């Protein structure tokens, strides 16, 4: 049930950039691996504000808060960053990090309904205190819309065929049933990949609004930073990484103006700092790190 933190030292080094003091945000607490590493490196008068929308993660954070008064744990989506920080009365911060996606405890507990490897109720909500379960969502969605979700969020080539099989199956109660339906409908299994991998990823992204949350979060994270404050984001698949990459690109580049003078004031808010992949040693120890990318940006002085 533990979670091995990915790119742990790389992320903390990039976020702190030599500092040992300040206010930092961990937007995805999980089991607190990154938060704890940050706290270990920070002075007694520093603060870490951690977010997670999973009630189990929040409970672990609440316990850690009892042991370390520098930590504040917030049970909310990082898409609400600005509002939540305002409620806490926090000024600008020195760094914001996010380690996107699901945690190992979410995947490993059959009861959370994320896994095609173990049979459990078809849930898949990160915040299982509200919203539609995957079971309800699959019941309500039209076949064509489901096919679009499987194609866009799972990059599943056989989206139409799989969507048809899912809708024809009627009410699907468990992850095992869904995995079996997808498996039977899938004409071409990829090597080293369960045929339901892409469909499960797509449904999970859709019901948790993962890409919308990330799109909303990124500009709020930059606005929360002091000049020279750092943003560090770890992503695990190309859809997330593309959003982060495009955001950093857009915020760090002057528009193409041809012969026109550059706009005043300078519209750039950040500069690119780094793009880091896990070392081969980390990937061999923790296969979950295989597809990870860390992107780092820094708030500009004038912004
Ligand atoms: C990969 S885990 C983070 C692991 C953590 N860095 C650690 O070392 O333990 C991702 C976590 O982000 C949370 N999460 C995902 N999307 C979120 C969102 N929009 N708002 C808040 N938390 C979110 C998930 O519930 C999960 O616990």
Automatic annotation (TrEMBL):
Its EC number is 2.1.1.199. The keyword Acetylation does not apply. It comes from the Bacteria. Transmembrane segments: none annotated. One of its GO terms (biological process) is rRNA base methylation. It catalyses: cytidine(1402) in 16S rRNA + S-adenosyl-L-methionine = N(4)-methylcytidine(1402) in 16S rRNA + S-adenosyl-L-homocysteine + H(+). InterPro entries: RsmH, SAM-dep_MeTrfase_MraW_recog, SAM-dependent_MTases_sf. One of its GO terms (cellular component) is cytoplasm. Keywords: Cytoplasm, Methyltransferase, rRNA processing, S-adenosyl-L-methionine, Transferase. It is found in: Cytoplasm. Its main location: cytoplasm. The keyword Plastid does not apply. Specifically methylates the N4 position of cytidine in position 1402 (C1402) of 16S rRNA. NCBIfam families: 16S rRNA (cytosine(1402)-N(4))-methyltransferase RsmH. This is Ribosomal RNA small subunit methyltransferase H. The lineage of its organism: Bacteria, Pseudomonadati, Pseudomonadota, Gammaproteobacteria, Moraxellales. The gene is rsmH.
